[in-house]
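User: Batch of two.

Assistant: Item 1 of 2:
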Amino acid sequence: MKSRIRKILPLAVSLVPVVLMICAALVFGSGGEGGGKEEGGTMTMVWRVVNFIILMALLWKLLADKIKTYFVDRRDEIAQMIDEADKAKADAEAQYADIQLKLKNVEKDIQEIKTAIMGELGSEKARIIEEGKAAAERIIQQARWTADQEVVKAKNELKEHVVEMAGDMASSMITKSMTPEDQKRILEDYLNKVVR
């Protein structure tokens, strides 16, 4: 019962303005000015209403499936683009994790260098230890700097990729969706709404 009401309700709602326009036309048409009697005035109006209803039914029958298909396809396309953006984000996060792992390995390498230096004897040992500490600090700073630069680079590339995708999506949406027929149809729909 509810599904039947759901099917009938849009038709009933769309017919209410039509019925109101017909009533208004009949009231204005029977105003009585002019003194003469126009033959077939009511029947002409009835035929116009019947023609209009037939036209609306044909348009509904012919265009409803195409419009529905367009919006379903568009929804799928947007979902696919979102999935691609999520994949790009996951790739960037994986690269960031790799850089972090490399940074941890650098710390391990530094510790191995310190252990080797500790094996040296005498004054040479002290000099090598000092050089090793300085080298380790430089390596750490350079590794951190390199890691930070890689992270910044990855973020910037991701941003540029997302901006490119958004630009491509916007241009393709405009290119695909706005044809002269679409513009004409949108204008006609707007005019029909204004007339109602």
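Item 2 of 2:
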Amino acid sequence: MRFLLLLSLVLLFSCNNPDGQPKKWGFPNEGTGYVSDSWVASELPTYSPDEVINTFLRNQDETVYIINFWATWCAPCVRELPDFERITAEYPESEIKVVLVSLDKIKDKTTKLLPFLRQNQIISEVIHMESKKSHIWIDKFAPQWSGAIPATIIKYKDRKAFHEGGLSYSRIMNYINEIRINS
């Protein structure tokens, strides 16, 4: 019981800076109070795992696909989102396409996920994925995936790299360059 209490306190205080203020993640309009109205529920589709695979991981074109599995409640996931947003802003979609696959619960789609996307003005493509029965679908994406998030698949033609854990902009670009060279 004491362990659970201690763990709860550690998690609670790890989400704030030492000065007690919420963490800054590095989003462009963070702290300004600006909220975009660009995200509406009808524009945020919910895919099955097979639909994600068929839509984004079976392509053989010249586009590099970055598929990032994340959730709004996952601090390491949110911490790396500005780097994915930077890639989306810097590269045309025909060259590099970032797809943020939210694993938030379906009941949190309109109450947590959409407000998060609006508040942080996410410009990358975002889809919501049904994440029930993960023991069945995880291996379809990457056999080495333990199921922890964040997790990222970088795919180019018939080559694929997988990374479990947080990524920086430079590390993402290294993966992209390695995959392109080896294709």
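Helices lie at 2-14, 49-57, 75-90, 109-119, 134-141, 169-181.
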